[in-house]
Amino acid sequence: MLGGLVAGAGIAVGRPSFATLLTVARRPAETFTLGNGLQVIVLPSRRAPIVTQVLIYKVGGADEVVGRTGIAHFLEHMMFKGTATLGPGEFSKIIARNGGRENAFTDFDITGYHQTIAADRLEMVMRMEADRMANLRVVEKELTPERQVVLEERRMRTENVPSSLLDEAVREQLFGRNKPYGMPVSGYVDDVKRLGAGDLAAFYKKHYAPNNAVLIVAGDTDPDAVRKLAERYYGPLAKKPIEARRRPSSGGTDLPQRVIRADARVVEARWGRDYLAPSYRVGETRHAYALSVLARLMGGSETSRLWRALVSDRKVALSASADYGASSLGLTSFGFDAHPARGRTVTEVERAVADQTKKLLDDGVTAEEVERAQNRLLAQAIYAQDSLSSGPRIYGAALSTGGTVADVDDWPRRIAAVTPSDVLAAARHVFRDDGAVTSVLTPVEGAK
What we know:
The chain is of the alpha+beta class and 448 residues long. It folds into two domains: 36-233, Cytochrome Bc1 Complex, Chain A, domain 1 (2-Layer Sandwich); 257-442, Cytochrome Bc1 Complex, Chain A, domain 1. The chain contains 15 helices and eleven strands. α9 packs across α12 (367-384). The radius of gyration is 23 Å and the shape is globular. The protein starts with 29 loop residues before the first strand and ends in a 6-residue tail after the last strand.
């Protein structure tokens, strides 16, 4: 979801004669800020008579402290347990009765709540969302059973998924134990068990405020109508003192590290390597756009370097990919992932990836490769404009992590401006052993 700004606006900058880059038209968007500090973005679309409201709070798992992990996610669950005017579960029941759908999510830097419903029901969902921004009731009788739901969710998504357990161990090494991004969003089990109603109420009181949120409305509406409704329902809510958020400017200590997990539930081995990387906000930020192009070029499709070398040509892997997400309030990661083919070993895969990274660092990349990667990214931006969900999340993620609407609008131009020398410089900055964690997921007989 938050792997970078993949929709926006702008015109591709001038390039040498070999380049034929896609042009991304500016997405219609209007933004304004209420007197209490709530940022509002309107993304009109007349494709269907529906609207999506997304409210994103500038708080997530990375804002927690040692011993209180999982509190942001637990509070997300409790936000559906009622206010002074709505009983437990009423919010969801009303949305369903009116033909809508809704959900919520918690990430490291943000927590979001969203509803999609008929356009003439926008006032209703805005009224209810504003109500629980200020009037949530956290009571023990609702908290106790919901704690079991939260813990069961962790069991299903993490404890019962060996790759998720490995990913947690990797993040702990890469970003540092007990540090932001090194602690799981779902929380450690013992911490979640200790959280009480007072803990959640205090976290809610501290972070849930109009001046710590971004409201995005997309769909069959217009800025004037949204402004009137926002002023009516969100406008009266009082702003609060909000502490500045801080993230470390360095990762874990004693890198490089190697993490191996052998699990009886694993059938096929997996190899990965994650590097500390700059985001749009922290580190050598000048490399962020080139790293997006590099990830696409190295492992973003079946025509990428890794796929062709490992899967198509050498047949040492069943799959091979690269991943990078720049929309982080702190440092982020650039990662490789591959699954050995039948009869091939993790060691062979690791050597093959090392060969490809060395080749890139020694020989650089071609202008044609960069152009293909850029066009894939720009095409994603074009397709994303048809979605009522991607636009709000992209704008919300940007504004919640220190970005602006202008940053989103300018994203295609900045991607189009990346040169082969930019990609090589970014690779040389990131592909360093002192910022890497190598991971192996293997059946119980061990890695080979």
